[in-house]
Structures are given as C-alpha cells and as structure tokens.
Amino acid sequence: MEAAGGPGPLGDAGRAGGPDEQITLRGPAELADCLPYLLGYHPSDSVVLVALHGERGRFGGRVKLGIPGSPAEWEPTARQLAECLIETSRRRDGRPDGIVLFLCREPGAGQTGRDVMQWLRPFAQRLRTACGTLDVPVFEALCISGGRFWSYCCPDERCCPAEGAALVTPGTSVLAAAVTYAGVGLRGSQKQLEARLEPIPEPVSGGQRRALDDTGADLVRGMLIGGKERREIGDDTIALAKMLMDRLAAAERITSPPSADAADDRLIGDDEAAFVILGLQDRETRDRAAAWMEGPDAEPALRLWRALARRCVGPYIEHAAAPLTLAGWVAWSTGDEPAARIALAAALRSDAEYVFALLLHQACNEGVEPEAIRKWLRRAGAEARDRADTDAGAADEAPGAGAPDSAEGPGGPARPRVRTVRPAGGRPAGRETAAGPGKQRRPAGTRGRAAGGGGRSGGRTEDALGDA
Description:
Organism: Streptomyces tsukubensis (strain DSM 42081 / NBRC 108919 / NRRL 18488 / 9993)
Order of helices and strands: EHEEHEHEEEHHHHHHHHHHHHEE
Number of strands: 9
Radius of gyration: 25 Å
Distance between the termini: 25 Å
Protein name: DUF4192 domain-containing protein
Largest sheet: 7 strands, mixed
Pfam families: DUF4192 (PF13830)
InterPro entries: DUF4192
C-alpha cells in the first residue's frame, strides 16, 4: 500500500505556484483530471483515497493500493484503507473532514469502461461505508476507465451521464497549464514507471542467470565466512559499482526512458551485474552504496540500481530488493517522490520484510525529510573512509605490502580488481579478472545457485540503517 501524509506534487488545495495562487476544482470532471497531478503519474489498476480538510476541501494525505482481484477481499481492504488514511491524516494534518476516492482500471478483453464501472460498484460502496463508519464522509467516488469517468455519487445526467463522460484531453485543462507553469511534470503512467524496474525477459535473461549462478557459488560463501573475506568482497563491490556508474555517466544521454534503459543494459556485462547484485546483499556494502544519493553521483547511481534490478531474474528475483530500495532512496533523496514510491513498493513486493525498504517506505509516507537519512549516511561514509585509511596504513607497514590491486591502463584510470573468494574445502580461488565494458570474464568456479537467503542482508533479521 502506498500512503502519503502530504498532498503530493499538486500541493495543498491544488495549489500551484505561489501561496496566493490556488486552483479551485469544480465538479467530477476536474477531480478526475487532477488525479495524475496528485500522484505524479497516471495510476493503473488502483484505488486511491484522498483526504480533504476544511470548508474549502484542501487536499491532504492519500493512500493508494492495487485493486484486489477477488471481491471477497473488498470488505477488509476497504476497512484497512479507510483506517490507514484517517489515522495517517490525523497525525499529520488533523482528522479529515471528507474523502474523495478514485477507482482506476482499464477494460480487459471484451470489456467496456462501463463494464468495469459496474463491476467495481460494490467495492466503491464498501469504501464509502468504511469511511462513513469512521465518521468521515466520502464526498465523491469516481471510476476512471477507458478514457471516461463515472461518478458513484452524482445522479445528475448532465455532468455524469450513464455512458460516462470523456476525460479532459491530457495537457489541455487550466489545471494542467497551472501545474506545468509551477514546474510539476508527469512521469508517464504507473505501468511505464514499473516497467523500468521489471526483470529482463527470456531468452535474454539466460546469460544473466548463468552469471549469477557462477558468481554466487563462491561469492556467497565468502560473505558468510565474514571477516577479511567479507570486507574485501564489499570493497570490490563498491569499486565495480563506481566504475559502472562512471561508464553510464560517460555514455551518450538518451531522453526516451525505454531507449535509455536499453542502452544502460548494453553497457553492463552479465558478470559485472552479477557481482554487484550479490555484493549488495551484504548490509554494510549496501549502506555504503546508498551514500551515492546527491550531487553528480545521484543520476548514474539511479540508472545503475534500475539496471541491476532488471538483472535479478529467475530464482534471483528476491535479490532485487537491494537495488530497488537503493533506486527508491536515490529518487526520494533527489525529490522524485512518485518514482521513489513505485521503486520502494516494488522492493517490498520482491521481499515484504526487507527492513531498509520498510523503513524508507514508512519515512516517505509520513513526510519525513530525507535530509535526516542523508546526514546519517554521510556520517557513516566518513567513518568507513577513516577505517579504510587505517587499514591501508597497517597494510603498508606489513611485509610484502605495496602490490597494487589494480593497474593503470593505457587509456585511463586503474580498474578495480574483481575476483572470487576461496571456497570452502580448499579448492583454488578463481582467477582475477579485469572489469571491462561488458567483457569481464566469468570467475572460475563451480556452477551452482547462490545460497539465496544465506548471504542476503537487510531482510527480516537486520536493522537496515546501521544499528539505529
């Protein structure tokens, strides 16, 4: 469920621009037109409840959830949504004076929008009843489907005919002009945003799955051994991730999201992706990666986390919780709350008990400023660098110290060392390999599926943000 304590991109009372500029919405048509601007994207297959405050119906908090497929789930879902919105609103803005609800679903094969509206009517009634039971009336209930909208509350055929009324053409309303002037843009549809995070399809994913199998056979063992092995894997993961970020940042910029994602995918080798995905299952390593949250690092980091989430295929889908959470964190840290909510929701679908995602999701929903988390990560990063400097100094004083882990290449800076760890049982460790653009050699070692839960971090037994 997505819950939000604030009014969203549109602002209070549909406010756009300065404090004296307010947009007054009149009637169901303008309410239906405003929904994408409240969320920052066009929702799909969703129920959305928005709190209203005061005599003028100022927009407040909102909750959003996918529409349950079974009518048997509608009654408990309605109660949960009503309680969640009213309690969240009470803590932030005070108890709401009313609620507006939206049911958004596109027609299926052989269906019309009116068919969808009629099928969802009992759900709308249960939502209205659940809110009324808590003494908060539903002022309007709209169904949006197939480019039209219907009101479950308005009996006036002039504004809400039985065949539905056409939605305003996107971008042509006064509201659209006002929010565009205020710099509030839409990021496409919910499905388009979710598609950027979904696993790559078969048969393309076959090579990535093999790379995860091969890398995980040794890497997860080293993470479980702990100590020096775990620290070295973490260092190699961070170094390789930073190199991939630099590679993405240097690439030609592409404005179309699908084309941009495809180009990013081509720049990352299967073995490179596998190493970083598995390395991020360690909590400390993931928290170090979360420090790329601002400044010039944020944009390539977000691209990398999205690309890695798409590489979590087959039995490794749960491993996507780490890169998805990082993607949500960077999006939230840089002010893109709609993208953050979608990424964090995807992380929780991947692993419902992934603590880092749970904490960030709750903080985002309750309107916590991300700067509090940024401060913690900056402090943790500084402490990690101090420890690394201390370790490096000790290594320099040790006999035989000074052999570099990477060499200066003829065309630029040194590339990080990427290697497999020595497995249990004394089998020789894998070869060291250089991480080139999509040309990294697969580490030597036996093939086998990574020990999924064993090396993962941030899940059901850990505190995600350090020990806080």
